[in-house]
Write a structure and sequence with these properties.
The protein has 60 residues and is mainly alpha-helical. The chain contains two helices and no strands. The termini are far apart.
Length: 60
C-alpha cells in the first residue's frame, strides 16, 4: 500500500476515534502500523511432487 494512502486512512481513523491530542497520535501510529503489516507478502512454499527417486548403482 502506498505510504500516502496509509497516512490518509490512518489520519481519518485517528480523527474519528481519537479524543485528545495524545490518543489521536497513538491511534494514528497503531492504524499506520497495522496497515503496513497487513500488506506484506509471504514467500511461497516450495512445491513438492510427493515422489522419491532412488538411484541404485548395484546390478542385479
Amino acid at each position: 500500500m502506498n505510504n500516502l494512502f496509509k497516512g490518509l486512512i490512518a489520519g481519518y481513523g485517528a480523527k474519528k476515534l481519537g479524543g485528545g491530542c495524545f490518543s489521536t497520535i497513538l491511534i494514528f501510529i497503531i492504524i499506520y502500523w497495522a496497515l503496513g503489516t497487513c500488506n506484506k507478502e509471504k514467500a511461497p512454499a516450495p512445491q513438492t511432487t510427493g515422489y522419491v527417486y532412488i538411484q541404485s548403482n548395484s546390478m542385479l
